[in-house]
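worker-03 picked up job from queue 'complexes'. Input manifest follows; two sequence lines, order preserved.
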Amino acid sequence: MTTTEGKRATFRQRYEQADDGLRFQDLTYTGNFVGMDPVTDGILGDKMMRSRARSGVLEKVTKEDVLRDHFTIDELNDLNNYLAWNIWDVLVMRATEGVSGMIPRQEYEILAFMHEFYRWPELMAMTTEAVGGAQGIMDIGASARREIGTKVNAVHDWCIGAVGFGMGRCGLLALEVIKPDEYVEESNEILKFMQRVLWGKRQDGYILNSQDRYRCRIHDQDFLDSIVNQVEPLDPDGPEHGAFTQFNAAAELLAFLDHYDCRLGLGDTGPYELPDGKLLILRDLFVNEEVFHWSDVCEDAKLPHVYTLALVLDPDIMNLEEIRVNDISTTFTRPKNYLQAVVGGAVFAREKWDTPMGEVYNIPISDLGDHLGRVQQATLKLYTKTSKMCRRDLIWNGQYVYYIDMILPHMRKAGTYEKACRDYDLWEIDQRVANYYYDITKRGFAQETVPSKIFSGAGYLPFPDGISPTRSKYRWL
Amino acid sequence: MADVLAEGYNVFDTKKSPSGTVKYLESPADVIGLIQSGKLAEHILLVRGGTTTFLAPALSMGAIGVITMSGAPESHLGILSREFQTPCVMTAHLTNSDSRYVVGSTDEAHFVEIARELDGKKVRLDCTDDEVGRVVAD
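worker-03 finished. Artifact:
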């Protein structure tokens, strides 16, 4: 064997039926499966979780399944368990990050989780009715197949169920303000909305990337071709490579900052294998979200709503063993450093969230310097602005980023965002959640209970057998 | 053999081995002050958390190396340091201490000890190993 042959990528083995994938972490998951073998991360973990399901909801499902209005209790519990594992899979290591020093994220996260669980069901029912029923919601998901720079993406769609239902219910259970047999109807409303958007987007019968060995391949071939045709070749040691990767990093940083240090500003799809064996990742970086008042600094810097980067990787350069585009739209690889393998790139800008695809324009890599300067300028101004905010403002602003932005793209597409603001007091804080503001700092709830219950997967209690799928909450005792 | 002062998760393997004086940053004002001093490139930055926003302008303006006391490569600061190709050692612990970071139940003394031991020291980051990043006396 020659040296070159010895450096061939092996990632394609991950897509063979019998392959269990690599382990990206040493930790294991237990959840509601106490006494059974601990569940791993990755492809093997997905297999283990699916093998423990009592229904077929975690396998490929049909359009008729998705159109049906109610899950069975077994299906709800299977989704609850799978999402709990999926949350652990993508977030247990992230959640070791501790204090921010800037934005109290644990605090705003838990408030948003609970607010979403209370408020979203009504908004989702209204939106479903406004688009003519279940098919209309599936069509919203399907719109992402022929768009770049859209927030109808993996992380937002996943958040509907994983965050609004899963973490929201888990947080309220941990706070002991709801019981496992309550809000079944509302849970169904949220999970059906999620299933319909994701099924409509993927159209392969699955809803999550983890079910498809961490692939999010949603675009039609002719649509992909139109992007690939604009990719510029990059020499890994050349100045254009540096300009492209530096812009990627700077824009990604601002996308995080504009979304209060959360993943909603970032959206990867792929990997798409190109005819020459290279891999394409499409990355949306939302650097200017107009519904946030603090984005005025991004507007002042004349930044578009979103930059989309096409990254072409040569898997052989990095001896790629596994690539995951996970359900929160983030790409991780083994080996970890993929940037050295970027051999082609393109950058596009979409000025507003609803700018037609025909008006999305390419920015030559040689012109990125001007955009980079404006991104850096906005980053510094937004940082300075944020550093002057008081704790309460930071927490509620962050809460809004989750509670509003996670369903904003779907309501925008449905044309119901303005109605939600006007008739449903979308930007108000529910009185129950306003009161929780004081509870979450007691007994280390945000700092200790949230990581131990939510990110570890330990607090996702099942719905009791035999409970009515239309049961809500009736008693406040 | 070089004196390893601290170890932690290596965010990404790289031959870059930045050296500088450790600067412990406690507040956004510290971050802004360092950037305005024009000496960002002289320092390895030590921070407590693994989130991105706190270090945002420093990353954007060219930080050469980062050490955190919590977080992992999957944390937002880990993701961004990979994108910036800024060597980063996360959840670093002192090699001469038994104290370790545990989510949600780490004593304040753990962070104080690390800051006291590393702040102001001349170090180099060794990020060549797949998993372990090392803070080496320089």
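worker-03 released lock.
Residues 1-5 of chain A have pLDDT under 50 and may be disordered.
Strands of chain A lie at 232-233, 266-273, 279-285, 306-313, 322-325, 331-334, 342-350, 361-363.
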